Amino acid sequence: MRIGSIILALFVASVALAAAACGGGSDKSTTSAPAAPVTNPVDPATAGSVAGKVTFMGTPPPPQPIKMSSDPRCSNPDAKTEAVMVAGDGSLQNVFVYVKDGLGNLKFPVPATPLVLDQKGCQYRPHVFGVQAGQTIEILNSDMTLHNIHAWPQTNQEFNLGQSLQGMKDTHVFTTQEIMVPFRCDVHKWMNSFVGVVAHPFFAVTGADGAFELKGLPPGTYTIEAWHEKFGTKTASVTIGAKESKDVPFTFSG
Amino acid sequence: MLLHLFALLTAASTAVLIFAGGLVTSTGSGLSVPDWPNSYGWFMFTFPLENWVGGIFYEHSHRLIASTVGFLILVLAFWLWRAEPRRWVRRLGFIALGAVITQGVLGGITVLWYLPDPISIAHASLAEIVFCLTTTIALVTSPGWKARYARRGPVPDDRRLQHVALATLATVYLQIVIGATMRHTDAGLAIPDFPWMFGHLVPDHWDPKIAIHFAHRVGALCVTAMLLIATGHVFARHRNRPELFRPSILLLVLVTLQITLGALTVLSHKEYIINSLHVVTGASVLVTTLILTLRAHRARFGDVLGPAGLAADARLTAGPGHPGAAAGARA
Q1: Which residues in chain B have Cβ-Cβ distances shorter than 8 Å to A188?
Q2: At B254, phi and psi to the nearest 5?
Q3: Are strands A147-151 and A178-184 parallel, antiparallel or unpaired?
Protein backbone atom coordinates (compact mmCIF):
# COMPACT_ATOMS: atom_id res chain seq x y z
CA MET A 1 0.00 0.00 0.00
CA ARG A 2 2.84 2.34 0.90
CA ILE A 3 4.64 1.67 -2.37
CA GLY A 4 1.37 2.07 -4.22
CA SER A 5 0.95 5.49 -2.64
CA ILE A 6 4.48 6.50 -3.67
CA ILE A 7 3.87 5.45 -7.26
CA LEU A 8 0.53 7.23 -7.27
CA ALA A 9 2.21 10.38 -5.97
CA LEU A 10 4.88 10.21 -8.69
CA PHE A 11 2.20 9.74 -11.31
CA VAL A 12 0.16 12.67 -10.06
CA ALA A 13 3.32 14.80 -9.90
CA SER A 14 4.15 14.01 -13.54
CA VAL A 15 0.68 14.93 -14.71
CA ALA A 16 0.69 18.08 -12.59
CA LEU A 17 4.05 19.02 -14.12
CA ALA A 18 2.58 18.75 -17.58
CA ALA A 19 -0.53 20.69 -16.68
CA ALA A 20 1.32 23.44 -14.85
CA ALA A 21 4.21 23.84 -17.22
CA CYS A 22 2.31 24.29 -20.42
CA GLY A 23 -0.56 26.56 -21.12
CA GLY A 24 -1.24 25.23 -24.59
CA GLY A 25 -0.46 26.02 -28.17
CA SER A 26 -0.53 29.77 -28.13
CA ASP A 27 -0.55 31.89 -31.21
CA LYS A 28 2.88 33.38 -31.33
CA SER A 29 2.12 35.73 -34.16
CA THR A 30 2.00 39.38 -33.36
CA THR A 31 0.79 42.33 -35.34
CA SER A 32 2.11 45.82 -35.25
CA ALA A 33 -0.01 48.68 -36.44
CA PRO A 34 2.14 51.53 -37.67
CA ALA A 35 0.60 54.91 -37.13
CA ALA A 36 -0.94 56.58 -40.17
CA PRO A 37 0.80 54.57 -42.87
CA VAL A 38 1.13 55.93 -46.36
CA THR A 39 -0.22 53.39 -48.79
CA ASN A 40 1.24 52.96 -52.25
CA PRO A 41 3.93 55.60 -51.73
CA VAL A 42 6.15 54.92 -54.74
CA ASP A 43 6.10 57.47 -57.53
CA PRO A 44 7.25 55.65 -60.70
CA ALA A 45 8.68 58.89 -62.01
CA THR A 46 11.27 59.03 -59.21
CA ALA A 47 11.73 55.39 -58.29
CA GLY A 48 15.25 54.03 -58.34
CA SER A 49 16.80 50.64 -57.80
CA VAL A 50 19.54 48.75 -56.02
CA ALA A 51 21.27 45.90 -57.78
CA GLY A 52 24.33 43.82 -57.13
CA LYS A 53 25.97 40.49 -57.07
CA VAL A 54 26.63 38.17 -54.16
CA THR A 55 29.86 36.25 -54.28
CA PHE A 56 31.68 33.77 -52.14
CA MET A 57 35.40 34.02 -51.40
CA GLY A 58 37.30 30.92 -50.51
CA THR A 59 36.75 27.25 -51.12
CA PRO A 60 33.08 26.42 -50.75
CA PRO A 61 32.00 23.03 -49.40
CA PRO A 62 30.80 20.98 -52.37
CA PRO A 63 27.10 20.04 -52.56
CA GLN A 64 26.56 16.64 -50.96
CA PRO A 65 24.52 13.85 -52.53
CA ILE A 66 21.25 13.29 -50.70
CA LYS A 67 20.52 9.74 -49.64
CA MET A 68 16.80 9.24 -50.13
CA SER A 69 16.63 5.51 -49.44
CA SER A 70 14.23 5.91 -46.52
CA ASP A 71 11.46 6.51 -49.06
CA PRO A 72 11.63 4.45 -52.29
CA ARG A 73 9.22 6.87 -53.95
CA CYS A 74 11.78 9.65 -53.53
CA SER A 75 14.59 7.88 -55.33
CA ASN A 76 16.63 10.54 -57.09
CA PRO A 77 20.31 9.64 -57.49
CA ASP A 78 21.18 13.14 -58.77
CA ALA A 79 19.76 15.02 -55.79
CA LYS A 80 22.25 17.21 -53.95
CA THR A 81 22.12 19.59 -51.04
CA GLU A 82 21.29 23.19 -51.93
CA ALA A 83 22.58 24.96 -48.84
CA VAL A 84 25.79 26.16 -50.49
CA MET A 85 25.65 26.62 -54.25
CA VAL A 86 28.61 28.52 -55.66
CA ALA A 87 29.30 28.91 -59.38
CA GLY A 88 32.78 28.72 -60.89
CA ASP A 89 33.15 32.53 -60.78
CA GLY A 90 32.19 32.64 -57.10
CA SER A 91 28.54 33.63 -57.64
CA LEU A 92 26.53 32.60 -54.60
CA GLN A 93 23.00 31.29 -55.13
CA ASN A 94 20.07 31.22 -52.69
CA VAL A 95 20.90 34.45 -50.91
CA PHE A 96 17.89 36.43 -49.71
CA VAL A 97 18.47 40.17 -50.18
CA TYR A 98 16.02 42.75 -48.87
CA VAL A 99 15.61 46.27 -47.59
CA LYS A 100 16.06 45.94 -43.88
CA ASP A 101 15.61 49.57 -42.93
CA GLY A 102 14.87 52.95 -44.47
CA LEU A 103 11.27 52.64 -45.62
CA GLY A 104 9.94 54.27 -42.47
CA ASN A 105 6.21 54.28 -42.17
CA LEU A 106 5.41 53.38 -45.74
CA LYS A 107 2.84 50.73 -46.51
CA PHE A 108 2.70 48.68 -49.67
CA PRO A 109 -0.11 46.76 -51.32
CA VAL A 110 0.06 43.00 -50.88
CA PRO A 111 0.26 41.01 -54.12
CA ALA A 112 -2.87 39.03 -54.85
CA THR A 113 -0.91 36.32 -56.63
CA PRO A 114 0.10 33.48 -54.34
CA LEU A 115 3.66 32.26 -54.24
CA VAL A 116 3.98 28.54 -54.91
CA LEU A 117 6.18 26.34 -52.74
CA ASP A 118 6.35 23.00 -54.49
CA GLN A 119 7.52 19.65 -53.17
CA LYS A 120 9.02 17.96 -56.17
CA GLY A 121 11.54 15.12 -56.29
CA CYS A 122 11.36 15.19 -52.49
CA GLN A 123 12.95 18.62 -52.42
CA TYR A 124 11.40 22.03 -51.90
CA ARG A 125 11.14 24.28 -54.93
CA PRO A 126 12.31 26.97 -54.42
CA HIS A 127 14.83 26.34 -51.67
CA VAL A 128 14.91 30.02 -50.63
CA PHE A 129 12.17 32.50 -51.44
CA GLY A 130 10.49 35.65 -50.20
CA VAL A 131 6.93 36.79 -49.71
CA GLN A 132 5.30 39.95 -48.52
CA ALA A 133 3.58 39.74 -45.12
CA GLY A 134 -0.06 38.98 -45.87
CA GLN A 135 0.70 37.34 -49.21
CA THR A 136 -0.58 33.82 -49.69
CA ILE A 137 1.82 30.91 -49.99
CA GLU A 138 0.40 27.99 -51.93
CA ILE A 139 2.02 24.74 -50.87
CA LEU A 140 1.84 22.00 -53.46
CA ASN A 141 2.74 18.32 -53.34
CA SER A 142 3.92 17.22 -56.79
CA ASP A 143 5.40 13.98 -55.46
CA MET A 144 4.00 10.48 -55.51
CA THR A 145 4.69 10.25 -51.79
CA LEU A 146 3.41 12.05 -48.72
CA HIS A 147 4.99 15.01 -47.00
CA ASN A 148 4.44 17.04 -43.90
CA ILE A 149 5.11 20.74 -44.19
CA HIS A 150 6.35 22.07 -40.91
CA ALA A 151 7.10 25.79 -40.59
CA TRP A 152 8.65 26.84 -37.30
CA PRO A 153 8.87 30.61 -37.17
CA GLN A 154 9.77 32.64 -34.11
CA THR A 155 7.16 35.38 -34.37
CA ASN A 156 4.56 34.08 -36.82
CA GLN A 157 2.28 31.11 -36.15
CA GLU A 158 3.95 27.71 -36.35
CA PHE A 159 2.11 25.13 -38.44
CA ASN A 160 2.46 21.51 -39.51
CA LEU A 161 0.37 20.21 -42.40
CA GLY A 162 0.12 16.77 -43.90
CA GLN A 163 -0.18 16.18 -47.63
CA SER A 164 -0.70 12.52 -48.27
CA LEU A 165 -1.56 12.60 -51.96
CA GLN A 166 0.03 13.92 -55.10
CA GLY A 167 -1.53 17.19 -56.24
CA MET A 168 -2.70 18.27 -52.79
CA LYS A 169 -2.57 22.01 -52.12
CA ASP A 170 -2.70 24.06 -48.96
CA THR A 171 -2.33 27.75 -48.42
CA HIS A 172 -0.83 29.76 -45.61
CA VAL A 173 -0.35 33.44 -44.86
CA PHE A 174 2.38 34.82 -42.63
CA THR A 175 1.19 38.07 -41.14
CA THR A 176 4.37 39.50 -39.63
CA GLN A 177 7.79 40.33 -41.05
CA GLU A 178 10.29 37.62 -40.16
CA ILE A 179 13.73 36.84 -41.54
CA MET A 180 13.75 33.85 -42.12
CA VAL A 181 11.05 31.26 -41.53
CA PRO A 182 12.38 27.71 -41.93
CA PHE A 183 10.31 24.93 -43.46
CA ARG A 184 11.10 21.29 -43.10
CA CYS A 185 9.62 17.91 -43.82
CA ASP A 186 9.93 15.60 -40.81
CA VAL A 187 9.24 12.60 -43.03
CA HIS A 188 12.21 13.34 -45.29
CA LYS A 189 14.90 14.86 -43.10
CA TRP A 190 16.87 16.35 -45.97
CA MET A 191 14.00 18.57 -47.11
CA ASN A 192 14.23 22.13 -45.92
CA SER A 193 13.44 25.55 -47.25
CA PHE A 194 13.48 29.15 -46.03
CA VAL A 195 11.10 32.01 -46.66
CA GLY A 196 11.83 35.64 -45.95
CA VAL A 197 8.64 37.42 -44.90
CA VAL A 198 8.92 41.17 -45.38
CA ALA A 199 6.49 44.05 -45.00
CA HIS A 200 7.30 45.48 -48.45
CA PRO A 201 8.04 44.28 -51.96
CA PHE A 202 11.77 45.09 -51.98
CA PHE A 203 13.39 41.69 -51.78
CA ALA A 204 15.05 39.21 -54.11
CA VAL A 205 16.77 35.83 -54.07
CA THR A 206 20.00 35.35 -55.97
CA GLY A 207 20.05 32.86 -58.81
CA ALA A 208 22.96 30.89 -60.22
CA ASP A 209 24.62 34.15 -61.35
CA GLY A 210 24.51 35.58 -57.80
CA ALA A 211 22.67 38.67 -59.07
CA PHE A 212 19.81 40.53 -57.42
CA GLU A 213 17.85 43.68 -58.11
CA LEU A 214 15.48 45.65 -55.89
CA LYS A 215 13.42 47.80 -58.21
CA GLY A 216 10.97 50.62 -57.64
CA LEU A 217 12.54 52.07 -54.49
CA PRO A 218 11.59 55.62 -53.51
CA PRO A 219 14.59 57.95 -53.16
CA GLY A 220 16.18 57.59 -49.73
CA THR A 221 18.84 55.94 -47.61
CA TYR A 222 18.46 52.24 -47.02
CA THR A 223 20.06 49.39 -45.12
CA ILE A 224 20.26 46.38 -47.40
CA GLU A 225 20.77 42.97 -45.86
CA ALA A 226 21.87 39.75 -47.53
CA TRP A 227 21.06 36.50 -45.71
CA HIS A 228 22.50 33.08 -46.37
CA GLU A 229 21.52 29.95 -44.46
CA LYS A 230 25.10 28.86 -43.78
CA PHE A 231 27.08 32.08 -43.94
CA GLY A 232 24.80 34.39 -41.96
CA THR A 233 24.08 38.01 -42.89
CA LYS A 234 25.85 41.00 -44.39
CA THR A 235 24.50 44.53 -44.45
CA ALA A 236 25.27 47.59 -46.49
CA SER A 237 23.99 51.16 -46.48
CA VAL A 238 23.06 52.89 -49.71
CA THR A 239 21.47 56.20 -50.69
CA ILE A 240 19.64 56.53 -53.94
CA GLY A 241 18.29 59.62 -55.55
CA ALA A 242 15.41 60.00 -58.00
CA LYS A 243 15.64 57.49 -60.89
CA GLU A 244 19.03 56.44 -59.62
CA SER A 245 20.43 52.92 -59.67
CA LYS A 246 23.13 51.86 -57.24
CA ASP A 247 25.33 48.80 -57.22
CA VAL A 248 25.68 47.04 -53.85
CA PRO A 249 27.88 43.96 -53.93
CA PHE A 250 28.04 41.45 -51.08
CA THR A 251 30.81 39.01 -50.38
CA PHE A 252 30.60 36.05 -48.03
CA SER A 253 33.45 33.87 -46.98
CA GLY A 254 33.57 30.48 -45.38
CA MET B 1 0.69 -17.76 -12.67
CA LEU B 2 -0.94 -16.83 -15.97
CA LEU B 3 -1.72 -13.40 -14.60
CA HIS B 4 1.93 -12.96 -13.59
CA LEU B 5 3.12 -14.02 -17.04
CA PHE B 6 0.70 -11.60 -18.65
CA ALA B 7 1.93 -8.82 -16.36
CA LEU B 8 5.51 -9.71 -17.36
CA LEU B 9 4.55 -9.48 -21.03
CA THR B 10 2.94 -6.10 -20.41
CA ALA B 11 6.03 -4.80 -18.60
CA ALA B 12 8.31 -6.08 -21.38
CA SER B 13 6.11 -4.44 -24.01
CA THR B 14 6.37 -1.17 -22.07
CA ALA B 15 10.16 -1.38 -22.40
CA VAL B 16 9.76 -1.89 -26.16
CA LEU B 17 7.49 1.14 -26.25
CA ILE B 18 10.08 3.27 -24.46
CA PHE B 19 12.72 2.18 -26.98
CA ALA B 20 10.34 3.06 -29.83
CA GLY B 21 9.70 6.45 -28.23
CA GLY B 22 13.46 6.96 -27.96
CA LEU B 23 13.75 6.25 -31.68
CA VAL B 24 11.10 8.88 -32.46
CA THR B 25 13.02 11.57 -30.60
CA SER B 26 16.45 10.39 -31.74
CA THR B 27 15.44 10.51 -35.40
CA GLY B 28 13.58 13.82 -35.01
CA SER B 29 10.38 12.19 -36.28
CA GLY B 30 7.97 13.49 -33.66
CA LEU B 31 6.10 15.71 -36.09
CA SER B 32 6.32 13.51 -39.18
CA VAL B 33 2.66 12.58 -38.66
CA PRO B 34 1.06 15.97 -38.13
CA ASP B 35 -2.38 14.84 -36.98
CA TRP B 36 -3.55 12.79 -34.00
CA PRO B 37 -5.23 10.43 -33.25
CA ASN B 38 -5.52 9.92 -37.02
CA SER B 39 -2.48 9.54 -39.27
CA TYR B 40 -2.67 11.75 -42.38
CA GLY B 41 -6.44 11.50 -42.08
CA TRP B 42 -6.47 7.69 -41.95
CA PHE B 43 -7.74 5.84 -38.92
CA MET B 44 -4.52 4.88 -37.14
CA PHE B 45 -4.90 1.14 -37.66
CA THR B 46 -5.70 1.39 -41.36
CA PHE B 47 -2.81 3.65 -42.33
CA PRO B 48 -1.37 2.03 -45.50
CA LEU B 49 1.89 0.15 -45.04
CA GLU B 50 3.46 1.74 -48.14
CA ASN B 51 3.21 5.11 -46.40
CA TRP B 52 5.41 4.05 -43.51
CA VAL B 53 8.38 5.92 -44.95
CA GLY B 54 11.08 8.14 -43.50
CA GLY B 55 10.16 9.62 -40.14
CA ILE B 56 6.62 8.24 -40.37
CA PHE B 57 7.99 4.72 -39.82
CA TYR B 58 9.21 5.65 -36.34
CA GLU B 59 6.31 7.86 -35.29
CA HIS B 60 3.55 5.59 -36.58
CA SER B 61 5.22 2.45 -35.15
CA HIS B 62 5.44 4.24 -31.80
CA ARG B 63 1.73 5.01 -31.94
CA LEU B 64 0.81 1.40 -32.78
CA ILE B 65 3.08 -0.05 -30.08
CA ALA B 66 1.62 2.46 -27.63
CA SER B 67 -1.88 1.35 -28.58
CA THR B 68 -0.88 -2.27 -28.04
CA VAL B 69 0.61 -1.49 -24.63
CA GLY B 70 -2.51 0.48 -23.75
CA PHE B 71 -4.65 -2.51 -24.68
CA LEU B 72 -2.44 -4.89 -22.67
CA ILE B 73 -2.70 -2.64 -19.61
CA LEU B 74 -6.47 -2.43 -20.07
CA VAL B 75 -6.67 -6.23 -20.07
CA LEU B 76 -4.27 -6.40 -17.13
CA ALA B 77 -6.33 -3.94 -15.09
CA PHE B 78 -9.51 -5.86 -15.88
CA TRP B 79 -7.84 -9.17 -15.07
CA LEU B 80 -6.54 -7.82 -11.74
CA TRP B 81 -9.95 -6.43 -10.95
CA ARG B 82 -11.51 -9.82 -11.51
CA ALA B 83 -8.82 -12.10 -10.10
CA GLU B 84 -6.56 -10.26 -7.69
CA PRO B 85 -7.52 -10.54 -4.02
CA ARG B 86 -5.29 -7.67 -2.80
CA ARG B 87 -7.12 -4.38 -3.07
CA TRP B 88 -3.96 -2.29 -3.49
CA VAL B 89 -2.81 -4.44 -6.40
CA ARG B 90 -6.19 -4.08 -8.05
CA ARG B 91 -5.87 -0.33 -7.58
CA LEU B 92 -2.40 -0.46 -9.06
CA GLY B 93 -3.95 -1.91 -12.22
CA PHE B 94 -6.32 1.01 -12.54
CA ILE B 95 -3.58 3.51 -11.76
CA ALA B 96 -1.52 1.96 -14.57
CA LEU B 97 -4.51 2.21 -16.87
CA GLY B 98 -5.04 5.87 -15.95
CA ALA B 99 -1.34 6.54 -16.42
CA VAL B 100 -1.15 4.96 -19.85
CA ILE B 101 -4.27 6.82 -21.01
CA THR B 102 -2.78 10.09 -19.74
CA GLN B 103 0.44 9.14 -21.47
CA GLY B 104 -1.38 8.66 -24.77
CA VAL B 105 -3.13 12.01 -24.42
CA LEU B 106 0.17 13.73 -23.62
CA GLY B 107 1.67 12.10 -26.71
CA GLY B 108 -1.18 13.42 -28.83
CA ILE B 109 -1.03 16.89 -27.33
CA THR B 110 2.69 17.16 -27.85
CA VAL B 111 2.20 16.44 -31.56
CA LEU B 112 -0.71 18.84 -31.95
CA TRP B 113 1.15 21.59 -30.09
CA TYR B 114 4.41 21.06 -32.01
CA LEU B 115 6.43 19.37 -29.27
CA PRO B 116 6.45 21.97 -26.49
CA ASP B 117 9.29 21.08 -24.13
CA PRO B 118 7.23 20.76 -20.91
CA ILE B 119 4.72 18.38 -22.50
CA SER B 120 7.40 16.32 -24.21
CA ILE B 121 9.39 16.08 -20.96
CA ALA B 122 6.24 15.10 -19.05
CA HIS B 123 5.50 12.49 -21.75
CA ALA B 124 8.97 11.01 -21.33
CA SER B 125 8.81 11.13 -17.53
CA LEU B 126 5.37 9.56 -17.31
CA ALA B 127 6.53 6.75 -19.62
CA GLU B 128 8.95 5.73 -16.87
CA ILE B 129 6.13 5.75 -14.31
CA VAL B 130 4.04 3.50 -16.55
CA PHE B 131 7.02 1.15 -16.85
CA CYS B 132 7.41 1.21 -13.05
CA LEU B 133 3.72 0.43 -12.58
CA THR B 134 3.67 -2.53 -14.97
CA THR B 135 6.92 -3.82 -13.45
CA THR B 136 5.48 -3.50 -9.93
CA ILE B 137 2.39 -5.43 -10.94
CA ALA B 138 4.53 -8.13 -12.55
CA LEU B 139 6.64 -8.35 -9.40
CA VAL B 140 3.89 -8.48 -6.81
CA THR B 141 1.98 -11.11 -8.77
CA SER B 142 5.06 -13.33 -8.98
CA PRO B 143 5.24 -16.61 -7.02
CA GLY B 144 8.43 -15.48 -5.27
CA TRP B 145 6.84 -12.29 -3.94
CA LYS B 146 3.76 -14.17 -2.79
CA ALA B 147 5.93 -16.76 -1.04
CA ARG B 148 7.85 -13.94 0.69
CA TYR B 149 11.07 -15.28 -0.85
CA ALA B 150 10.98 -17.74 2.01
CA ARG B 151 13.23 -20.47 0.63
CA ARG B 152 16.27 -18.87 2.27
CA GLY B 153 14.53 -18.16 5.56
CA PRO B 154 12.49 -15.18 6.72
CA VAL B 155 12.66 -12.19 4.43
CA PRO B 156 14.96 -9.52 5.94
CA ASP B 157 13.55 -6.24 7.23
CA ASP B 158 16.69 -4.16 6.81
CA ARG B 159 15.73 -0.51 7.38
CA ARG B 160 19.06 0.79 6.14
CA LEU B 161 18.75 -1.08 2.84
CA GLN B 162 15.17 0.12 2.50
CA HIS B 163 16.19 3.74 2.93
CA VAL B 164 19.20 3.49 0.64
CA ALA B 165 17.23 1.70 -2.06
CA LEU B 166 14.41 4.23 -1.89
CA ALA B 167 16.86 7.14 -2.10
CA THR B 168 18.58 5.44 -5.06
CA LEU B 169 15.25 4.98 -6.79
CA ALA B 170 14.43 8.66 -6.37
CA THR B 171 17.90 9.64 -7.64
CA VAL B 172 17.57 7.44 -10.73
CA TYR B 173 14.14 8.88 -11.51
CA LEU B 174 15.37 12.44 -11.08
CA GLN B 175 18.31 11.65 -13.36
CA ILE B 176 15.91 10.33 -16.00
CA VAL B 177 13.80 13.50 -15.79
CA ILE B 178 16.97 15.59 -16.23
CA GLY B 179 17.89 13.35 -19.17
CA ALA B 180 14.45 13.89 -20.70
CA THR B 181 14.86 17.64 -20.22
CA MET B 182 18.25 17.51 -21.90
CA ARG B 183 16.84 15.46 -24.74
CA HIS B 184 13.83 17.65 -25.43
CA THR B 185 15.65 20.95 -25.09
CA ASP B 186 18.21 19.73 -27.61
CA ALA B 187 21.04 19.93 -25.09
CA GLY B 188 22.42 16.45 -25.79
CA LEU B 189 25.51 17.81 -27.47
CA ALA B 190 25.71 21.08 -25.54
CA ILE B 191 28.93 19.66 -24.10
CA PRO B 192 30.44 17.99 -27.14
CA ASP B 193 33.35 16.08 -25.60
CA PHE B 194 33.65 13.20 -23.15
CA PRO B 195 34.90 12.57 -20.49
CA TRP B 196 36.16 16.16 -20.41
CA MET B 197 33.87 19.12 -20.80
CA PHE B 198 35.26 21.61 -23.33
CA GLY B 199 38.63 20.14 -22.43
CA HIS B 200 38.16 20.80 -18.71
CA LEU B 201 36.90 18.96 -15.68
CA VAL B 202 34.09 21.53 -15.40
CA PRO B 203 32.83 23.64 -18.35
CA ASP B 204 34.65 26.95 -18.69
CA HIS B 205 31.56 28.71 -20.01
CA TRP B 206 27.86 28.31 -19.38
CA ASP B 207 24.44 28.67 -20.90
CA PRO B 208 21.14 26.96 -19.99
CA LYS B 209 21.77 23.98 -22.29
CA ILE B 210 25.28 23.44 -20.97
CA ALA B 211 23.88 23.60 -17.43
CA ILE B 212 21.25 20.94 -18.19
CA HIS B 213 23.83 18.71 -19.87
CA PHE B 214 26.23 19.20 -16.98
CA ALA B 215 23.46 18.34 -14.49
CA HIS B 216 22.88 15.07 -16.35
CA ARG B 217 26.56 14.15 -16.12
CA VAL B 218 26.65 15.01 -12.42
CA GLY B 219 23.44 13.02 -12.04
CA ALA B 220 25.15 10.02 -13.60
CA LEU B 221 27.85 10.22 -10.94
CA CYS B 222 25.24 10.52 -8.18
CA VAL B 223 23.30 7.52 -9.52
CA THR B 224 26.48 5.46 -9.76
CA ALA B 225 27.46 6.37 -6.21
CA MET B 226 24.00 5.56 -4.86
CA LEU B 227 23.90 2.26 -6.72
CA LEU B 228 27.33 1.32 -5.38
CA ILE B 229 26.17 2.05 -1.84
CA ALA B 230 22.94 0.08 -2.27
CA THR B 231 24.49 -2.91 -4.04
CA GLY B 232 27.51 -2.84 -1.72
CA HIS B 233 25.15 -3.12 1.21
CA VAL B 234 23.43 -6.08 -0.40
CA PHE B 235 26.76 -7.80 -1.11
CA ALA B 236 27.91 -7.22 2.47
CA ARG B 237 24.72 -8.14 4.32
CA HIS B 238 22.42 -10.11 2.03
CA ARG B 239 24.66 -12.11 -0.24
CA ASN B 240 22.57 -15.19 0.57
CA ARG B 241 19.34 -13.56 -0.58
CA PRO B 242 19.05 -14.14 -4.33
CA GLU B 243 16.02 -11.85 -4.59
CA LEU B 244 18.31 -8.97 -3.55
CA PHE B 245 21.64 -10.23 -4.85
CA ARG B 246 20.52 -10.82 -8.44
CA PRO B 247 19.03 -7.37 -9.09
CA SER B 248 22.14 -5.87 -7.49
CA ILE B 249 24.40 -7.68 -9.94
CA LEU B 250 22.10 -6.70 -12.79
CA LEU B 251 22.17 -3.07 -11.65
CA LEU B 252 25.96 -2.95 -11.78
CA VAL B 253 25.91 -4.40 -15.30
CA LEU B 254 23.17 -2.02 -16.41
CA VAL B 255 24.74 1.12 -14.98
CA THR B 256 28.08 0.25 -16.61
CA LEU B 257 26.29 -0.26 -19.91
CA GLN B 258 24.33 2.96 -19.41
CA ILE B 259 27.40 5.11 -18.77
CA THR B 260 29.07 3.57 -21.83
CA LEU B 261 26.01 4.32 -23.94
CA GLY B 262 25.86 7.87 -22.59
CA ALA B 263 29.49 8.45 -23.55
CA LEU B 264 28.91 6.89 -26.98
CA THR B 265 25.85 9.06 -27.50
CA VAL B 266 28.03 12.15 -27.18
CA LEU B 267 31.00 10.76 -29.08
CA SER B 268 28.81 9.47 -31.94
CA HIS B 269 26.99 12.83 -32.15
CA LYS B 270 23.74 11.23 -31.03
CA GLU B 271 23.66 8.24 -33.37
CA TYR B 272 20.01 7.32 -33.16
CA ILE B 273 20.27 3.63 -32.19
CA ILE B 274 22.85 4.32 -29.47
CA ASN B 275 20.80 7.26 -28.26
CA SER B 276 17.62 5.16 -28.06
CA LEU B 277 19.43 2.30 -26.31
CA HIS B 278 20.63 4.87 -23.76
CA VAL B 279 16.98 5.78 -23.12
CA VAL B 280 15.75 2.22 -22.65
CA THR B 281 18.77 1.18 -20.59
CA GLY B 282 18.08 4.13 -18.28
CA ALA B 283 14.52 2.87 -17.90
CA SER B 284 15.90 -0.60 -17.14
CA VAL B 285 18.13 0.83 -14.41
CA LEU B 286 15.06 2.51 -12.94
CA VAL B 287 12.85 -0.58 -12.83
CA THR B 288 15.67 -2.83 -11.59
CA THR B 289 16.23 -0.34 -8.75
CA LEU B 290 12.48 -0.43 -8.18
CA ILE B 291 12.54 -4.22 -7.97
CA LEU B 292 15.41 -4.10 -5.47
CA THR B 293 13.53 -1.44 -3.46
CA LEU B 294 10.28 -3.38 -3.40
CA ARG B 295 12.00 -6.61 -2.45
CA ALA B 296 13.93 -4.80 0.29
CA HIS B 297 10.53 -3.69 1.60
CA ARG B 298 8.94 -7.12 1.22
CA ALA B 299 8.76 -7.70 4.97
CA ARG B 300 6.72 -4.51 5.34
CA PHE B 301 4.03 -5.86 3.07
CA GLY B 302 1.79 -8.32 4.87
CA ASP B 303 1.18 -11.84 3.74
CA VAL B 304 -0.42 -11.80 0.38
CA LEU B 305 -3.20 -14.09 1.43
CA GLY B 306 -4.36 -16.10 4.37
CA PRO B 307 -4.55 -19.91 4.03
CA ALA B 308 -8.05 -19.73 2.53
CA GLY B 309 -6.99 -16.97 0.23
CA LEU B 310 -3.99 -18.92 -0.98
CA ALA B 311 -6.30 -21.68 -2.13
CA ALA B 312 -8.55 -19.16 -3.81
CA ASP B 313 -5.58 -17.45 -5.41
CA ALA B 314 -4.46 -20.68 -7.03
CA ARG B 315 -7.83 -20.86 -8.74
CA LEU B 316 -8.27 -17.19 -9.52
CA THR B 317 -4.94 -16.48 -11.13
CA ALA B 318 -5.70 -19.18 -13.67
CA GLY B 319 -7.78 -16.65 -15.59
CA PRO B 320 -10.40 -13.93 -15.43
CA GLY B 321 -13.20 -16.19 -16.51
CA HIS B 322 -12.90 -18.55 -13.57
CA PRO B 323 -16.12 -18.85 -11.60
CA GLY B 324 -14.43 -18.08 -8.29
CA ALA B 325 -12.79 -14.94 -9.55
CA ALA B 326 -15.43 -12.46 -8.42
CA ALA B 327 -15.59 -13.91 -4.93
CA GLY B 328 -11.82 -13.81 -4.61
CA ALA B 329 -11.67 -10.23 -5.81
CA ARG B 330 -13.89 -9.14 -2.97
CA ALA B 331 -11.62 -10.79 -0.38
Answers
A1: 54-55
A2: -65, -40
A3: antiparallel
pLDDT tens, residue by residue, B213-257: 999 999 999 999 999 999 999 999 999 999 999 999 999 999 999
- Classified as helix, coil or strand, A23 is coil
Choices 1.10.287.130, 2.60.40.420, 3.40.50.720, 3.20.20.70: CATH for A109-199: 2.60.40.420
CA distances from A190 to A149, A182, A228 (A): 13, 13, 18
Task: Check if A144 contacts B (Cβ < 8 Å).
Answer: no
Residues of A in contact with B35 (CB under 8 A): 162
Residue B29, chain A, CB below 8 Å: the answer is: yes
* SS3 (DSSP) at A72: helix
Contact status of B133 with chain A (Cβ, < 8 Å): yes
Domain residue spans of chain A: 37-103+206-254, 109-199
CA atoms of B25 and B31, how far apart (whole Å) = 10
Q: From the candidates B53, B113, B115, B145, which should be mutated to test the interface with A, based on the most A CB atoms within 10 A? A: B53
Q: Where are the alpha helices (DSSP H) in chain B?
A: 2-26, 54-83, 87-112, 117-140, 143-146, 159-184, 208-237, 242-267, 272-296, 307-316, 325-330
Report yes or no: A4 at the B interface, CB cutoff 8 Å: yes
∠ CA(B152), CA(B158), CA(B161), 5° rounding? Answer: 110
- With 60 as the cut, is the pLDDT of residue B266 above it? yes
Total-model pTM: 0.85
Residues B182 and B77 in one domain: no
Whether residue B111 sits in one domain with residue B174: no
